[in-house]
Amino acid sequence: MSVRDEVLSANEKYASNFGPKAELALPPSRGFAILTCMDARLDPAKYAGLSEGDAHVIRNAGGRASDDAIRSLVISHKLLGTSEWFVIHHTNCGMEFFTNELMGDLLEQSLETAELGPEGFRDVGKSPGSPAGREIDWLTIADREQSVVDDVTRIRNHPLVERTIAVHGFVYDVESGRLIGVPAATAAGAPGS
Ligand code: ZN
């Protein structure tokens, strides 16, 4: 079965038992939002106990507070009423294994998938690349806890983020499934007046 068929078959099963989820309200019923990494090992619904309709989950590479993540958070609060936000990065994040410079080099050589070896990412592709990757800030992570502090601080200080919102910082441990608090981040994200 192709991946497409697998997805459609899983969806058929899911929709056949949809039941009362048809009546869910648009605003998240538990009033919070999670910003986290797209890493396939992380399932916020499971690690944070979410059901459909509970919370907003905003995901990108690294769980970084990019302009677009902040766009979603501002909508989450201003239009849909969330009042508590979690920034959750994680151990063994792919964003720790490259730099803007390396990503620019890799993409300039080829657009094909690079290999991840013990020495980091290495290009093996033969098709042409593009220098356009050098224009992008890939928001890589050099220091895991500091990246959580930086993102919580950036959100906290954003002019469109209301001071009453609590912003918490955590690292998810991919080996234990636990959320580990980053006290400096949560202190930086404490609600003010
Ligand atoms: Zn990650």
List keywords for this structure.
2 domains; 193 residues; 6 helices; 31% helix; alpha/beta; five-stranded mixed β-sheet; Beta-carbonic Anhydrase, Chain A; 18% strand; 7 strands; binds zinc ion
Summarize this entry quickly.
By secondary structure, the chain is α/β, with parallel strands linked by helices.
List the helices and strands and how they pair.
Layout: H1 3-16, E1 32-37, H2 44-47, E2 55-60, H3 67-78, E3 84-90, H4 100-109, E4 115-117, E5 120-122, H5 144-156, E6 166-172, E7 179-181, H6 183-188
Parallel strand pairs: 1-2, 1-3, 3-6
Antiparallel strand pairs: 4-5, 6-7
The chain binds zinc ion.
Describe the structure.
The protein folds into two domains: 124 residues, Carbonic anhydrase (Beta-carbonic Anhydrase, Chain A); 39 residues, no CATH class. Helix 2 links the parallel strand 1 and strand 2. The model has no long low-confidence stretch (mean pLDDT 96). The longest helix has 14 residues. The radius of gyration is 19 Å and the shape is globular. Helix content is 31%, strand content 18%. It is an alpha/beta fold and 193 residues long. The strands form two sheets. It has a five-stranded mixed beta sheet. A two-stranded antiparallel sheet has the order 4-5. The chain is built from six helices and seven strands; from the N terminus they run αβαβαβαββαββα. It binds zinc ion. Zinc ion (ZN) binds next to loops. The site of zinc ion (ZN) has 7 residues, from loops.
